Amino acid sequence: MRVLAIDPALRNTGYAVLERISAPATRGRAGYRALTYGVVRNAPKLRQSGCLVEIRQRIADVIREHQPDVCAVEGVIYVQSYRTAITLGAARGAALLAAAEHGLEIYEYAPKRVKQAVVGRGAADKQQVAFMMRALLGLTETPPPDAADALAIGLAHCHATEPGKGLREAPEPI
């Protein structure tokens, strides 16, 4: 199974593709590796419409290159500014459009659930998430915060859908 994970934002959209692996080193349990991860960085002077096109295009490129089976995305978070909410929603929409255009089922995870799954604490900070992604996925470097968040979203989806877990609330595609 390959999972495209997205942490959407207008200026810095994190993305990652994780793959489930079985190997003697995992002692019979499912293991995961990061095939790619990074951040779609949009310049501050680029108009919102240009940012949305860039997000959609870069996510589509990642999908074509790595052929994921599903997409996992961070759920909508509460923000006090309606302008911020609208901007985040637009960036999320651009990323999800790329996934939907390629026929991927899309799953949504609340930020606290993601942090709980990968750090053990729903209130973990970005540095803790990045450190855990490096440790859990055996990365040689600590990923940038937005990419680390995407890796965490992907890993949370992998854990939520792992065969034999017997989850009471299996995720449903959106």
Summarize this entry quickly.
Helix content is 43%, strand content 21%. The protein is α/β, with parallel strands linked by helices and 174 residues long.
Write structural notes for this entry.
The protein has 174 residues and is α/β, with parallel strands linked by helices. Helix content is 43%, strand content 21%. It has 5 helices and 5 strands. The protein has helices at residues 48-66, 82-101, 111-118, 126-137, 145-160; strands at 2-7, 12-21, 31-41, 70-74, 105-109. The chain has a 5-stranded mixed β-sheet, sandwiched between helices. Helix 3 (111-118) packs across helix 5 (145-160) and helix 4 packs across helix 5. The longest helix has 20 residues, at 82-101. The radius of gyration is 15 Å and the shape is globular.
Helices and strands, with pairings:
Elements: E1 2-7, E2 12-21, E3 31-41, H1 48-66, E4 70-74, H2 82-101, E5 105-109, H3 111-118, H4 126-137, H5 145-160
Parallel strand pairs: 1-4, 4-5
Antiparallel strand pairs: 1-2, 2-3
Helix pairs in contact: 1-2, 3-5, 4-5
